[in-house]
Each structure stands twice: as C-alpha cells, then as structure tokens.
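Slide 14.
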Amino acid sequence: MSFDVEPGRFRVSFFPVSRFSHFLVEQRKAGKTVNVYVRDSDMTHGFARSFSLPTHTNITMEIFNGVLHVFRKFWYGSPVRAVGMGVTNLVDDSVMQLDLFSDKVRKRELGYTMDKIRAKYGATSLMRCASLTKAGILPERASKIGGHYA
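Slide 15: predicted structure.
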C-alpha cells in the first residue's frame, strides 16, 4: 500500500486495498481484523496496529475505511517510507452478519460482479475516478508485471 504523505495531510492509494479485497473475494474469505504496518523514512520508527471491524467483510470500502482509521489514529506526522496491511480473523464469506441498516449482500454481490468484469476485461476496465487523477497509479501499474515493464 502506498501513501503519499505531506506535512499535515496525506493521500492514500486505494489500489492496494482494492487488490487485497479482490484476493479475499477470490478465496471466498472475509476478515474482521485489519492490520496496518508503517515505517518512517529512516526506517527506525513506526507502528504496527490492528483494528477490529464490526463484522467480517471482504467489501473493499469497509477494509479501506478500517486501514484509514488505523493510519489516522496512529500516524504522528513523519514522512512514511513503508506501509503494509493485512486482514486476519478470517472466515468463509458465506458466514455474514446481516445488518438492518446496510445491504451487505448487495454490496458483496456487486463486488463479485466487478471482480468478474476485471478478470474478463482487465484491471482498468472498471476504475474509480480518483485513478484518473495525477495521484492515481492504476493505469500505469496495470501495464506492468510485478511492478516492472515487461
């Protein structure tokens, strides 16, 4: 996961979280605990923290919001060199806590459909508008293999 950190504010690349949730969907898994690892620019300080989501999920925005929550809570303003994330406390995604106030089944099915479209037509067939801005990395990254041009 890459963060572009500036003094007093930060921008977060959504792409790695999206790829990670895609992996969970492919494996038909859902997680409850989001883990975030951050090292500062001189690699001497940082933090590793976890945050439990209200329910198990593989919905991209729920995982992204969990990562963002941990980062905002524990980041102390120094330049960031390395960031990692993970999800633990995994269950089969057929185990789902239903909620009267949100339609998780519909969101999950939408995520599955989006992943099927991306698998058939490529990673750039469906993108968030933010990926088209100067800070977006998806169009460039989609043309690479393992982070390198072929």
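Speaker note: The first strand starts at residue 3 and ends at 6.
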